What does this fold into?
Amino acid sequence: MASLFFQRAGWSLQIARTSRSFAISFSTALSRRSRHSAITSEARSTLRSSHGHAPQGRPHTKDLQTNFKPTRVYRAQQARAATTFAATSNPTQPPPPTERIQLSGEEAVRTDDLTSGLGDKPVVLDEQVRQVDWARSFHGLSTEAFSKEAAEALLGPVALDDIEVKPDGIVYLPEIKYRRILNKAFGPGAWGLAPRGETIVTAKAVTREYALVALGRLVSVARGEQDYFSPEGIPTAVEGCKSNALMRCCKDLGVASELWDPRFIRKFIAEHAKEVWVEHQMTMKKRKMWMRKDDQVKYPFKISTATAQGSGKSSYGKY
It folds into this structure.
């Protein structure tokens, strides 16, 4: 019985020959396609060399085995295999720790868990310096009332032309109108929003807590929120979250308080809003939509002649 052994970095081949058959043992870390080509070519050349027909220019298998020098990759593979074997042979020994792959750049950004925040925590100020840390302080809260002129601007009745109606019938005041009222009451630059925490991004929404500061005093604290539909919309949702927090902070100052009064809402809907049937021009789907009486249906919708189911009359005929 004769035995041949051929070894390279990453794979090895052993052939045992008897009088009637061959026994081949092959181990490698290559892919299936590369492994198959290596088995075919090297086994064929090894068999030739065993009969004394080694091709010119290639040394005999024994010479290759004698002159073999393990490379860095081969030594690393052998060390990893020895560690795995030692861990599996001794069940009381814990398995080796999994190798962590450190990502950088764009790949690291994609794999971050945004539910823990965007990493934009407020800056912690030096407590030794005389200043107010609005991320934690409640300085000036309820110390004294604002001036009469500021109170009139804040508590004045909201203009009916400024109120908008959402398609689902909810009335609201655009965020820019709140900013105009604050500028009128305190003046541009005399008020601002200070973040009180880190931006939290969930699977469908963005939320963050803000504090409204006016004339160097804390006025109100509220948490804003904004939905988003794709990761590309997160920056816009962060800005919408800030505006939502501003609207909620202004409730403590009495700004546009009518919009939270049920009686005012019912009266406004009855006098200034209407519900119409519209049809989507692309999908041809029909639905009901609320809007102001002085507004027009905008693309991609158009007025539909459909009537309310079972009524026999148009749902907007009374308007």
About this structure: DSSP finds eight helices and twelve strands in the chain. Confidence is low (pLDDT under 50) at residues 106-112, 308-319.
